[in-house]
Request: fold
Amino acid sequence: MSEYDDTFAANSSSVDLRGFDDDFQSAEAPSHDEVPDGKYQARIDAVRLDRSRKGDPMIKWDLIVIAGPQTNRHIFKNSVITPAALPFVKGDLKTLGLELAKFSDLGHRLDELLDVTLEVTKRTRGEYTNVYFNRRFQVPHSDVPPPTPEGTPF
Reply:
């Protein structure tokens, strides 16, 4: 038996949640539905290199909507890197203002893409969703809402 076996033992009698009853009734559970198709102003919150299920290298993008009714919702994009897709990946990087002398330098320059603001279009056809980087734009720093994880009350 480990020293942690009783960590989650039932001890609910000492926890009084009655003070939360009114707030619980009016609280809405966060939606985990995808952002609907459309154009959005977004900020790059995270970007990293990874591998697809087939083993191809890819860029994983996490964008946060910064304006409109979907503010603070996430849009995700995976850019698989293959010879056929390379022109599209290069186009996305150019749209974001990242010029590379060698593509192999990308991993060391991903941080330069963080907090870049851009207009994106999200389009779903059947079971496939595409996210297009339309254009980069500058937002005065005070106009960008601070990043807050969805559903975090503080």
About this structure: The longest helix spans residues 86-95. The chain has a mean pLDDT of 87. Strands lie at 38-51, 57-65, 74-80, 117-125, 128-136. The domain at 38-143 is CATH 2.40.50 (OB fold (Dihydrolipoamide Acetyltransferase, E2P)).
